[in-house]
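Final report, closing paragraph on structural work. Over the funding period we assembled a curated collection of sequence-structure pairs, and we close with a single example.
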Amino acid sequence: MATAQDRIRDYAASLEDVNGFSMPGGWYAITLGPYGRADAEQVLDVLRAEGKIPQDSYIAFASNYQRQFWPVGSDMLAQAEAVTPPQDTMQETVQIEEPIQPSIVQLPDESPAEARRSEAALSKEERMQLQEMLQWAGFYDSAIDGAFGRGTRASMSSWQEAYGYEATGVLTTRQRAELARQYNAVLEGMDMQMVRDREAGIDMKLPMGVVAFSRYEAPFAHYDATGDIPAKVVLISQAGDQKTLFGLYDIMQTLEIVPLDGPRQRKDDSFMLIGESASMVSHTQVSLKDGQIKGFTLVWPAGDEERRKRILGQMQESFTRTSRVMSPAAGGEAEQSVDLLSGLEIRKPRVSRSGFFVDSSGTVVTTIEAVQQCSRITLEDGIEAEIAGQNDALGVAVLKPKTALAPVQVAELQLADPRLQSDVAVAGYSYGGILGAPTLTYGTLADLRGLSGEEELARLTLTALPGDVGGPVFDAGGAVMGMLLPKAAGGKQLPEDVSFVLDAASIGGLLSELGLTPTATDTLDQMDPEDLTDKASGMTVLVNCWE
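Its predicted structure, as stored:
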């Protein structure tokens, strides 16, 4: 109520005829009116176009509302009744078709002859469903073909014996109903209901006992968990062509709701993604038809396979396209974030660091910090890589891409000692790839040794960020004098502008041990900053470590 009152004050400051009502189910409505039907449609179109109300606002009737809470002391319901049109013209964005609750009838049991006659009236689909239920119950292990042969009869007899019935091999109407009740017991509490989402243009059954409509953020309609079961349903709807479909296929695989493990299948006009992790299983299926891309994702907790498969089956069977497709502006007022895509969290790596190419096939040198405890290592653009070698003492690792690359630039290792106080620069993905390109951070060479006299280290006066670690450190001529190391954990607290670099000779030694021959130089030179930027951009690579 407090949130509703805050929001309604905001609307009342810029709009007229603002009212607030409580609704069934604990919701609160902010309304404008009352209006006649024609006036209501005009007001809706104008205010939507001007961006003064959400795009998913809709026309409703006074009968939808309960007590009025704004303005205080007002009672507009009586006025609204005078202009309420017939109920069958109401337009809703999301409509849930309430299931008809059948009265409970105790079915009479049948004689074997009567059971055979009632069985003969079953359609092939009903006979196949009966076999599926017997298979689920553990009594049938043959083909689901609707043919009641020796195997099916034996399974019926076994089920009858298990539940105290006479083993005739023919299920009576009451027994078939009992088997169906057992089969459907797993869905108790799921409240599978037919939902008509007019904005998305999709009708389908959803488990409304555990999810409820949350919001639109094109091209997705979000149905979020309402209780202890961490489930989620996302309806997908947008106009497009095959290129749009393929782009969506790539984008969906970057989302947290689609774990990396699991089968993927892309065809010319459809795709399917199954993602499996220790905590969830997600199923996404999308198809292109007549310029409309529609589908859905079901996210369900891992370990509840029986219920997940049954819910998924009903969703797939009931999925129906209607003529409308979601507007690209739907949910446009939602808060935006670089970590979100239309309200869905983008999968992020555990650690992002920098590296650099050292040969023409795409071999990368990086910090060992970037490759520890990784289930998967990728270079920018998602190219998977594996560790070719590492030196824990030096803190350096060498990566080989699983797909050969052709780098624009390759490091030229500097074997000569640059002058003290000369200019240096580190290239790196300072912000973990958010900017999409490496940045250069400038500093000076303070010492050719570490603080304790380590000859393989050099000390820089340079302020770097964690994302820069593993990146190449250039001398004034554009040669790579070494690799930026991470700050030492614990111990003495050093000034922010103190950084250390592993020298090029140590890196070259590790590469030689792996059978690689890096390019090297002992010439000290000068390079224009613009040229150095181009060189660094073609050589520096983002290294991602995934859990």
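The mean pLDDT is 87. The longest helix spans residues 305-318. We thank the funder for supporting this effort.
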